[in-house]
Amino acid sequence: MRSTSRATTQTAWVGWIWFGGAMMILLGVFNVIEGVVALFNPRYYVIGPQGLLVFNLTGWGWVHLIIGILAVIAGLALFTGAMWARVTTVVLATINAIAQLAFLSAYPLWSTIVIALDVVVIWAVVVHGQEAREEYEQL
């Protein structure tokens, strides 16, 4: 009897998507923490003489909180390899990188690290996204 299942070649690159999903969850949790701290303890962050771009610290607290919650959801959905999850992840990672760029005066080293991680997540999802979907379908 012939098997009707399709044989696919799985590469090690599918791990990059799982890395992207895990990093989105982690970055989302960090953003939620940043947002909650900015909302409830605004003296925690030291802001330079230029201040923050666009919003005050409370506004950035809400931005980080919302982006964080959405990033956790997108990171969890990314494990399924769904196209909407990949697109959402790229959009959220881009928005997060821009938000961190504007948050540089409050936390320069941390913001730079998060921007770099956002870029790696975007690369992983764009380049290796289809492999995660194929892996999920085989389970």
TrEMBL record:
This is DUF7144 domain-containing protein. Residues 16-129 form the DUF7144 domain. It comes from the Bacteria. The keyword Secreted does not apply. Keywords: Membrane, Transmembrane, Transmembrane helix. InterPro entries: DUF7144. The lineage of its organism: Bacteria, Bacillati, Actinomycetota, Actinomycetes, Pseudonocardiales. The chain crosses the membrane at residues 12-40, 60-79, 109-129.
